[in-house]
Design the sequence.
């Protein structure tokens, strides 16, 4: 079974600084990877996804992630963060069962932006 | 945003009572999922559906049952609620393997 490890439970950064949120997954023959963001008291919103092709994936709100097969990593980055990026971020890997997509989530990284 | 609603959005109930949560979609997606979110655990899959009347268990299915009689509705039932089922429950939908889209969640407190 797949597993996901988010290496930092909390990441504090200053506004306009760069940030990297780290995610490692257990290896598999084929893998689909996702980052979701959850703002306080809301559901999860898809930030970006890697299904195949280019290893650098661009998402919404200026975020990007790089798929590294050899290191089994899918780290999320943003060159300059804003107060509005304060949220919890979840990395997820997908297994397929009967065509359904079984997502396995990491425990989440809480990103706090300080002015 | 994907058309997903969950009801109720908040519920307080007592141990031993049955509880049903509803997920409704307007996207005509084939796949629907129920997750629970608990601090330190991320989201964990409870049950999923791959079509009308076609459902299967996820990672944490004990104490839960589901039903899907129409494409648009996926019900999660706690037959006899326990305090360990206090959580935030999310429904999600997908048309295939490209991504899942989540509803706003239901906060359940079992006293």
Sequence:
């Amino acid at each position: 079974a797949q597993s996901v490890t988010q290496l930092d439970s909390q990441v504090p950064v200053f506004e306009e600084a760069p940030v990297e949120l780290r995610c490692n997954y257990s290896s598999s023959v084929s893998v689909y990877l996702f980052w979701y963001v959850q703002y306080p008291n809301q559901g999860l919103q898809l930030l970006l996804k890697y299904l195949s092709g280019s290893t650098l994936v661009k998402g919404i709100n200026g975020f990007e992630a790089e798929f590294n097969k050899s290191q089994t990593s899918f780290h999320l980055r943003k060159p300059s963060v804003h107060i509005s990026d304060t949220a919890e971020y979840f990395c997820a890997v997908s297994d397929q069962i009967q065509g359904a997509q079984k997502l396995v989530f990491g425990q989440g990284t809480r990103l706090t932006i300080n002015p | 945003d994907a058309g997903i609603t969950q009801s109720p959005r908040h519920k307080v109930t007592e141990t031993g009572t049955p509880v049903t949560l509803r997920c409704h979609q307007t996207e005509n997606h084939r796949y629907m999922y129920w997750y629970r979110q608990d601090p330190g655990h991320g989201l964990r899959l409870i049950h999923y559906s791959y079509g009308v009347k076609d459902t299967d268990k996820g990672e944490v299915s004990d104490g839960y049952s589901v039903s899907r009689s129409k494409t648009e509705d996926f019900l999660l039932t706690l037959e006899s609620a326990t305090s360990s089922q206090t959580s935030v429950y999310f429904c999600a939908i997908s048309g295939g393997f490209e991504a899942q889209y989540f509803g706003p969640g239901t906060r359940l407190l079992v006293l």
In short: DSSP finds no helices and twelve strands in chain A.
